[in-house]
């Protein structure tokens, strides 16, 4: 059995820009044909298909799960936060060193 990422878009949606009517599922099946069969006829061929009627699917995308890349967003966010904290600390250090130098110059003869 293989896993497939199935992306479907239904005819009912509110706006193309925000993805209304779009759904994504991981489906396990023997083949792409079996996935198509399960998406188009989820209740069997004796029932209505998902590509007809008022809520009909208008697009079906099937991608082998082996080609799907899961992005570690938490790791990326942690890296961004760490870099921001380091940048902030460097800025604080630079300001403190500039203040220290200014005070040394000001009170050099004291």
Describe the structure.
- The structure is a single chain.
- The chain has helices at 32-40, 73-106, and strands spanning 2-10, 22-29, 57-64.
- The chain has two helices and three strands; from the N terminus they run ββαβα.
- The termini are far apart.
- Strands 2-1-3 form a three-stranded antiparallel beta sheet.
- The model has no long low-confidence stretch (mean pLDDT 89).
- Helices cover 39% and strands 23% of the residues.
- The longest helix has 34 residues, at 73-106.
- It folds into two domains: 2-67; 71-110.
- It is of the alpha+beta class and 110 residues long.
- The protein is rod-shaped.
What's the short story on this structure?
With 110 residues, this protein is an alpha+beta fold. The protein has helices at 32-40, 73-106, and strands at residues 2-10, 22-29, 57-64. The chain folds into two domains: 2-67; 71-110.
**Into which percentage range does the β-strand content fall?**
15-25%
- Spans of 5+ residues with little confidence (pLDDT < 50)? none
Number of domains: 2
What is the overall silhouette?
rod-shaped
In which range does the helix fraction lie? Answer: 25-40%
Order of SSEs: EEHEH
- What's the count of strands? 3
């Amino acid at each position: 059995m293989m896993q497939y990422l199935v992306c479907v878009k239904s005819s009912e949606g509110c706006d193309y820009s925000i993805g209304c009517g779009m759904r994504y599922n991981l489906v396990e099946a023997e083949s792409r044909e079996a996935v198509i069969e399960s998406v188009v006829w989820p209740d069997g061929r004796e029932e209505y298909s998902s590509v007809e009627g008022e809520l009909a699917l208008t697009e079906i995308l099937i991608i082998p799960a082996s080609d799907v890349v899961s992005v570690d967003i938490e790791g990326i966010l942690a890296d961004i936060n760490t870099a921001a904290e380091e940048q902030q600390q460097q800025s604080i250090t630079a300001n403190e060193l500039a203040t220290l130098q200014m005070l040394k110059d000001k009170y050099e003869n004291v």
